[in-house]
Amino acid sequence: MGDSEEVSRVSTCTITPSRASQEQHLQLSPSEIYLLTAQYIQKGLLLPKPDPNPKFSSPSMDSVLQRLKASLSECLSHYFPLAGRLTSHPDGTITIHCNDAGVEFVHAKAIHITLNDILRSPYVPLVVRSFFVHSGAMSHEGRFLPLLAVQVTELADGLFIGCSFNHVVGDGTSFWNFLNSWSELSKHINDKGEACTLSRPPTIRQWCPATNPPVCLDPPIDSWSLPPKPSPPLFNDRIFYFPAHSISSLKAKANSQNMDATSPISSFQAFYAHVWRTITRAHELPEAQETWCGLSVSYRSRVVPPMAPYFFGNVVKPIFLRTTAGELLGRDLGWGAKLIQDAIAKQTNEEICSWLEANAKAPIVFETTGLTTSPGVLMGSSPRFDVYGNDFGWGPPLGVRVGYDNRFDGKLFAFPAREGRGGIELHFYMNSNAIAALERDKEFMEAVEEKTD
């Protein structure tokens, strides 16, 4: 189950905001400029097929698609930057041109594939990558590609809604806030196509530090010699499930090894340190070999004054930690967790504003080259995102899956477990030898619970 020919496209159309947006240009911040060379975010949800009920008097695929299109149109009137395009200017600045050019909406079919074909195995079948539009597209291509593209794939007994979302326009928080809003509008839209009032409307460009004066690229991006799109190698895409009690045990263990710490180790810090140590063991690195881990920190609440909680944009700062394999594995879990804790704690208002100001003067962009020269791990997404609350009107999601989305050997995606209660689904993208080593690692697998659905 890995051939893109298994998925056939039925139709493609453009969805525009239900109400005309005020035409304007939104200036990009340094953290948005940084991700011009990152690929589009690609996340998608597996959903049950709608059953006949009062909300679906005619539960045909046409009625489902119409509901999704109407609610998406309404959602875009709130998230209007997604309906625009990136525009480069002669002075080197780049803006989001809010011109209501619209987003791409694709209806596809893979009716010989069942939900269980995707959900039952811990290994994600390659066909899932065909459930997304514009796979491998770089964010700077938003100058001529839609900033959002949606593919609704009809399965034998369900649906997959895959979103390709320009990473310059929004970070992971913005992505899931958008999806939460769309599903809310879809769930409550009436038979006349009239939507409800959005319970958590976004704040569009309320404030962002270091955007005045505008960030200028020299030379302008149109004259860059850009690298070709990376094609991810066919590594294994494997999901491990960590129940809440395993996370709690890791947290307790890390804190018991940091009795003199000024603040307790969090569940995430203990969990990420555990994963980093395990992957380092799996690679069988020499003691002197460098290893690293990275993550993105949202600065919505870290700057002064804090940004609105539903600020829509890209407001994350990447942080990387480096040490040697010998030091990471020669010390205990608590030491690794404290390393991560200290790096996050340094992300103060002063540190973030200094980083933004420096990158406004001398812009830098995301490069994967430095992430592949030595073995490491990069955590994407977050178990805090509301993934399984996305009910479009016929039931909550049954699973979440990832497309291309900036993959390389060692990229991880963390999602909350479907059952909630503090469990974590961790999606690994690694070479087969490393995955096999993880599965043989007793310490690692003791914290994992195998799932059959």
From TrEMBL:
Transmembrane segments: none annotated. One of its GO terms (molecular function) is acyltransferase activity, transferring groups other than amino-acyl groups. Keywords: Transferase. Residues 1-24 are annotated as: Disordered. InterPro entries: CAT-like_dom_sf, Sec_Metabolite_Acyltrans. One of its GO terms (cellular component) is cytoplasm. Residues 9-24 have a biased composition (Polar residues). Gene3D superfamilies: Chloramphenicol acetyltransferase-like domain. Pfam families: Transferase. This is Uncharacterized protein. It comes from Amborella trichopoda. The lineage of its organism: Eukaryota, Viridiplantae, Streptophyta, Embryophyta, Tracheophyta.
